[in-house]
Amino acid sequence: MSNIRKDKILGSRRISNYWWATLILLGGLGFFLVGLSSYLHTQLLPFIESSEILFLPQGITMIFYGTVAIFISLFLWLTIFWDIGGGYNEFNNDEGLITILRLGFPGRNRIIKIRYNINDIKSIKVNITEGLNPKREIFLKTKDQREIPLTRIGQPLLLSEIEKEATSLAQFLGVIIEGID
Asked: Which residue spans traverse the membrane (predicted)?
């Protein structure tokens, strides 16, 4: 049995982000080009008839909303490229260390790397909140009562998956589980 466990954390490189970045970019380009067509009085998009759109007020409004959408799409594509929120959780019983690594925006704190001694871990805490905005999270709880989140952001995992993952991690680290009744 391996004494090292490494869980990859999916950041912003998920299918839904690719979908929204592409959709917003195409919509923004469409709006921008139709607005620009109304200003230039030429047909920039062959499949859309824009000759009846006046530049003031419709054309300039479409250029504005198209530009905003292009910038939002650019932001989404950059977060995908930089893999914001991605990283890993590494549990190393050989060295007695837990390493949590996350990627952020470029700059001084691009890579956030936190290390804990396994002996400082008190338990694995599971937090389950049902309702309109359900949350199913796994935390490392330290002896000084700090709670370090381990689960990824996004769709909540199934209850059985959370229980299985928390139980597996607690057995690997040799600690108890809190929060599962």
From this structure: 20-40, 60-82
